[in-house]
Amino acid sequence: MRNTKIVPVILSGGSGTRLWPMSRPERPKQMLSLTADQTMLQLTARRAVGESYAAPIVVANARHADMVDEQLGAVGAEPQALILEPAGRNTAPAIALAAIAAGGGEDALLVMPSDHVIGDVDAFHATIAAALPFVDDGWLVTFGISPDAPEIGYGWIKIGEAIGNGVNRVERFVEKPPLDKAQAMLASGDHAWNGGIFLFRADAYLAALTRFAPGIVAATEAAMAKARHEGHRVYPDAQAFAASPDDSIDYAVMEKADRVAVAPVSMGWNDVGSWDALHSISDLDGDGNAHRGEVLAIDTSDCLVRTDGIKISLVGVSDLIVVASGNDVLIMPRGRSQDIKKLISAMKG
C-alpha cells in the first residue's frame, strides 16, 4: 500500500495557435470547451481526483493565471501550487519546477498535458495502477498510445520486453517518422505513439535530470529558491529560469535514462492538434457534420462548423471547416487544417 498520493502535474503553458481563430495566445486551446461543456483544462484535472490523488500542481503561462484558477475552482480541482513560468523553456524545465514544488521526494508525479482528450478514463486509471509498482521502484514510465493510423505528426516508441503486467521496457524512441516508416511501425504491432503523459517519482526524475541535463536542474532550483509566492501562486525567478536550457523531457531524460518503461494503452486518446482532428472525434449529425454554436446547415455534409458569436448558415456545401470567433472567420477544406500555420505566419507579416 502506498503511503503517499499521486501528485497530478498539469502542463498548461501552450499557446495553441493550431485551432485559430478560437485558440489564441491570450486564450489557448486548453482554456476552451472543445469536446464537452467543460474546458480541456478542466477535463484534464478531473481525470485525476479522488482518494489516490493529491491536489494538482499546474505549470502555466503567467498571463493565464486568473483563467487557470477560475476554471479549476469551478470544478473543485484547486491546485496546491500554480507555477507561473516567466518564459517558456519546454517540458523538461517545466516538469522540474513541479518536481521541486512537490518536495523532490518519493511522491509519484502524473504528468499530463492540459489539452488532450482521453475518452476511456477507466483504461487510463488501470494503466496508472499497473505502472505504479515500477514507479515506486524508481522507473520512469511513459504512456504509449495504441496507434490506429500511420501518424507522422507524433513521435513513436518501440515497445521492448515485458517487465510486468502491462508494462514494458522502452526499446527506443523514434522521431516523427516519414510515412513509409510510420506505416511499417503500425504494421509491426510493437510500436506506440508517444503521447507525452508520464508517471515517475519526483526524486527519480530530478536524479535523471541531474545526470543528463544538470543545467536544467541548476537553473530551476535557483529559480524556485528565489521564487515569489502569492498564496498558492509561485513566480519562479525570471533571471534564474532564463538560464535553463530549452529542452523537452524526451530529449533531456527519457531517451537517455536507463530504467525507462512504457505502459501501452488504448484509451481514446487524441491531442486535438487540428480542426480536422476535432471533427474526427466529435459527435456528428446524420449528414456527418459537427457543429456548435448558432449554425444553420441545409444540404450540407461532412463539415465542421463552430461559432462563439455570429450565426453561420451553410447551403449545399461539403467537407469544409468553418470557424467564427470574434471578428475572425476561418474557411478551409477539410484535410487542410495543418495549413493554419501558413495563415498565422502571413498575419504576422
List the keywords.
30% helix, alpha/beta, five-stranded mixed β-barrel, 19 strands, 2 domains, 349 residues, Spore Coat Polysaccharide Biosynthesis Protein SpsA, Chain A, four-stranded mixed beta sheet
Topology:
Elements: E1 7-12, H1 40-46, E2 57-61, H2 65-74, E3 81-85, H3 91-101, E4 108-113, E5 117-118, H4 121-136, E6 140-145, E7 156-164, E8 167-174, H5 179-188, E9 191-201, H6 202-212, H7 214-225, E10 228-230, E11 233-235, H8 238-242, H9 249-254, E12 260-265, E13 269-270, H10 275-281, E14 290-292, E15 295-298, E16 304-307, E17 312-315, E18 320-325, E19 328-333, H11 340-347
Parallel strand pairs: 1-2, 1-4, 2-3, 3-11, 6-12, 14-16, 15-17, 16-18
Antiparallel strand pairs: 4-9, 5-13, 6-9, 7-8, 7-9, 8-12, 10-11, 18-19
